[in-house]
Amino acid sequence: MNDKVFTKPIKKQFEFDEEVAAVFDDMLERSVPFYKESQKITEFFTHKNLSENGLVYDLGCSTASLLLNIHRKLEVNAELIGLDNSEAMLAQAERKCEAFGVDIEVKNADILTYEYKEADVFISNYTLQFIRPLVREELVKKISAALKKEGVFIFSEKVISHSPKLNKDLIECYYDFKKTQGYSEYEIMQKREALENVLVPYSEDENIKMALNSGFSHCEVLFRWANFATFIAVK
Prior knowledge:
Layout: H1 18-31, H2 35-48, E1 54-59, H3 65-72, E2 78-84, H4 87-100, E3 105-108, E4 119-125, H5 133-146, E5 147-160, H6 164-180, H7 185-195, E6 202-203, H8 204-213, E7 218-225, E8 228-234
Parallel strand pairs: 1-2, 1-4, 2-3, 4-5, 5-6
Antiparallel strand pairs: 5-8, 7-8
């Protein structure tokens, strides 16, 4: 289904409800620049770091599209677990997994309090930015503690610049991209208002510093387009 969520006046802050879940895959591909390319990079590094009988967590798995793509190219026996706190998203994910006949576990869970098993890979696609800054680093520390030695955390985030002019230009560049994807000025402004104080992005440097402060030995950017970036942190 095509994303038409913000063609009408908003009445609440952004949330991952049934209306959003129904069009989420389209929303991602049209709202996140080079989304498929960043996902392919995530898949590549997941497979490179996944051992026999290993475990992958996808935090904020939404409709499980990424886990399904990872599953298709598995060369080892591995457990894939997707966590999300949106019942609407998980319902879509379960329907997809059933349709493709794959053994992927998706759970309704609070990623801040979930008891993680030792894992090879953690993935988080545009999820940390929805975690309150006061507890965001605590979550990343929890991820680091659950990873095996040399395990990886691959995460994508919207990023900001601390230069006011550059930050303004990055936002303008992004809005020009959204217009080329068929979104109207009205839809763009409606979504921006709905996300106000819900999505709180860090800068590239702040994301890297957070990872290093949380027990990772190394963190760098794998892919970046304007104010969207994919990072890898190595334990």
